[in-house]
Design goal:
The chain is mainly alpha-helical. 67% of the residues lie in helices and 2% in strands. It has 11 helices and 2 strands; from the N terminus they run αααααααααααββ. The protein is globular, with a radius of gyration of 22 Å. The N and C termini lie far apart (60 Å). The chain binds protoporphyrin IX containing FE. The site of protoporphyrin IX containing FE has 20 residues, from helix 2, helix 4, helix 6 and helix 10. The site of protoporphyrin IX containing FE (HEM) has 20 residues, from helix 2, helix 4, helix 6 and helix 10.
Amino acid sequence: MTAWIDHFLFGLYPYLCLVVFFVGSWIRFDRDQYTWKSDSSQLLRTGSLRWANNLFHVGVLFLFFGHFVGMLTPHAVYDVLITAHDKQLLAMISGGIAGLMGFIGVTLLLHRRLTDARIRATSKTSDIALLWIFWVQLALGLATIPLSAQHLDGSMMMLLAEWAQRIVTFRSGAADLLAPAGWIFKTHMFLGMTVFLIFPFTRLVHVWSGFGTLAYVLRPYQLVRARRLNVPTGQNQPRRSL
Ligand code: HEM
């Protein structure tokens, strides 16, 4: 029988986190748009930021999409393309590289934020807490790789994916599935969900905007009309501008 704590953490907590993530982001956008930003510290010191920030973002964005597609694609859909064994290997290798990039990046970001007096003084508690959370989360993610290497049949990966799919499709029994998962997997999952929980209260809201910028690709041209008087008909055409 699954303990109540497992039922709470892996059966109820995911929904709590998702509700706070969506509703909280909405309320923050509605009420506090001027606080909706990535809070760049580049003006205080560029230095290691370029490498650190890029390594961190490339790693984390790859991991975000990797987890999203990897966990939520039903086995029957990818089964014709790739076996569970190969998919697990792919996840371990690509996730390992991206995880390492993210981990080096976040370590540099943390070092910079803690050792530069001006950046430290202007950091909110949540800025530092976030970096520590990602540091631990990436370390735990990397620690799952040797564990996964012990069972290359993809069984654990399929189990975790089934858990995620049951959660997002509101099916019961999700928490019970996790009985064979060890504490490293469970702590990694708990912390991952917690990132969604704290998301609306931190600078992480910039992730919405980051994805939102993709809309610029499809955005219609802005029409700019000159406010000239007495212009002969036909010359007051709108200009197209990005
Ligand atoms: C969607 C695309 C994204 C864009 C365009 C973006 C952009 C940015 C920018 C411009 C900064 C400020 C860097 C500076 O100090 O100048 C930043 C910081 C940060 N981003 Fe993102 N980001 C994206 C996605 C993400 C994701 C997916 C995460 C993690 C889940 C993330 C976590 C962070 C964190 C923790 C910082 C603070 C780094 C520090 O302590 O200096 N970002 N991001």
